[in-house]
Write a structure and sequence with these properties.
alpha/beta; 2 domains; 9-stranded mixed beta sheet; 6-stranded antiparallel beta sheet; about 25% helix
Length: about 325
Amino acid sequence: MEDNNTEDIPPHSRLSAGCKLCYEGAKLVLFLTGICHRDCWYCPLSKDRKNRDLIYANEHLISTPEEMISVAKRMSALGTGITGGEPFVRTKRLIQYAQALKDEFGPEHQIHMYTAFTPDKKILESISGLVDEIRFHPPNDVWKDLEHTPFHGSIQMTKELGFDTGIEVPSLSNLNDLEHYLPYLDFLNINELEWGDSNADEMRNRGYLLRGDVSNAVKGGWESAQKLVQHPNVHWCSSDFKDRVQLRMRLKRVACNTAREFDDITEDGTIIYGVWECDGKKTAIPGEPDEDLYDRFDDRIEMSWWVLEDIADMIDGPAYYIERYPDGGIIIEVTPV
């Protein structure tokens, strides 16, 4: 596998307020809608979400602000990143959910949002005091002449109204076209270009290759960004960093708040426990372990992995260890006893 020669932990001097909280794993990810007015060929959004009007708080499909608040509390969120799709195609929803966050957690709950839209003053004023930071995503074919596009007016208006204002784009080959525009921005975030199921055909058609055997990052992204990252207000966010630091820290926060007494929290923030398939309500557990070391369901008993290991030779029926994301998240691995 090819190594990625980038910083493991970026210096905070290059990070916006929203990025600092992401680094700590303290940001709720609010996917406001999958609807978008643009069709960027490099969009990594999964087919399950793209062009679908769904709302997710982290990995949880939700339909109300109250459900979002519950997810935020379970991870002790200090802020929220609002993404999509395009959040401004559901401006009323954006205001409703951002207001709920501020009402529940106070003005110090930092909210940033992404947009490929060019909002006018009226729209920006409607989210003032709710959204703290706006990250614009202009399409790459206008980067060289950004001052003469509608993005320029929106960016300047956003700054005048007191929002932290920046641009966030993937590491495409023409990144240097943005260098002249840096004086207009509080920050520029560069995300390592990633290969996804919805953009794979376009990646192949343009000759892009994967960086390594076990990464979905595209080869050449870091090289494209090297000139720009020398500027103090430019931040490079690698695919590895998101997986190994940002996601892991967020999972740990969730696990610490939601894990049962017998769930074993790993260094990656996942949880491990044992499962014995049986009549979960009536079957006796050999050795009669403490009640806080197991949980009964109709068709199974979930327990600490070490209890299952101790009784494995004394029970009948399927038994296995599960590793998964906390709070009922995705199952990563199932290992038979």
